[in-house]
């Protein structure tokens, strides 16, 4: 359930421009939720589970990307050319299939794929960063 609540806030950040009121509110609510949820877990004797939560103020503690890093990555992914996006999906399907989910749209539209950044561990995040840096580097070379 906590994951679903986080999804609401991360989606609000994803679909609203960084710096907009909605984006900033969602980031604030997510931070408050994580802090409150960690307090509840600790009160219930779940210290180890509470310590595993990503603290947006201290992402280094968990080795996971911060919410801001996830937001930047989302923007970078959305800017990929279709062929490069296809290569990314192939990479994820091979290395991290749990990060991809097929979605059938209402009304029978074409199927889509959702990519869940939240399931990536530190090593998987690093591979995604490497892929993106390589693709962005090649894109800069082509523009010259």
Write the layout of secondary structure elements.
Blueprint: H1 2-14, H2 21-43, H3 47-51, H4 67-78, H5 82-95, E1 100-103, E2 112-115, H6 122-143
Antiparallel strand pairs: 1-2
Helix pairs in contact: 1-2
Can you tell me about this structure?
The protein is built from six helices and two strands. The termini are far apart. Helix 1 (2-14) packs antiparallel against helix 2 (21-43). A two-stranded antiparallel ribbon has the order 1-2. The chain has two domains: 1-63, no CATH class; 80-144, no CATH class. It is globular and about 55 Å long. A hairpin with an 8-residue loop joins strand 1 and strand 2 (112-115). The model is unreliable at 54-61 (pLDDT under 50). By secondary structure, it is mainly alpha-helical.
pLDDT averaged over residues: 79
The biggest beta sheet reads: 2 strands, antiparallel
Strand order of the largest sheet: 1-2
Order of helices and strands: HHHHHEEH
Count of discrete domains: 2
Cα Rg: 17 Å
Poorly predicted sequence stretches spanning 5 or more consecutive residues? 54-61
Total E-strand runs: 2
Rough shape?
globular
Which range does the strand content fall in?
5-15%
Helix proportion range: 55-70%
Helix/strand class: mainly alpha
N/C terminus separation? 48 Å
Count of helices?
6
């Amino acid at each position: 359930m906590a994951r679903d609540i986080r999804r609401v806030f991360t989606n609000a950040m994803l679909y609203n421009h960084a710096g907009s009121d909605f984006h900033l509110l969602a980031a604030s609510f997510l931070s408050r939720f994580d802090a409150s949820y960690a307090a509840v877990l600790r009160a219930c004797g779940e210290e180890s589970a509470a310590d595993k939560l990503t603290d947006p103020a201290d992402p280094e503690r968990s080795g996971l990307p911060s919410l801001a890093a996830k937001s930047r990555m989302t923007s970078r992914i959305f800017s990929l050319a279709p062929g490069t996006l296809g290569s990314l999906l192939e990479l994820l399907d091979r290395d991290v299939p749990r990060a991809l989910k097929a979605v059938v749209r209402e009304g029978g539209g074409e199927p889509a794929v959702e990519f869940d950044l939240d399931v990536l561990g530190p090593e998987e995040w690093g591979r995604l960063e490497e892929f993106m840096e390589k693709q962005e580097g090649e894109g800069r070379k082509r523009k010259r």
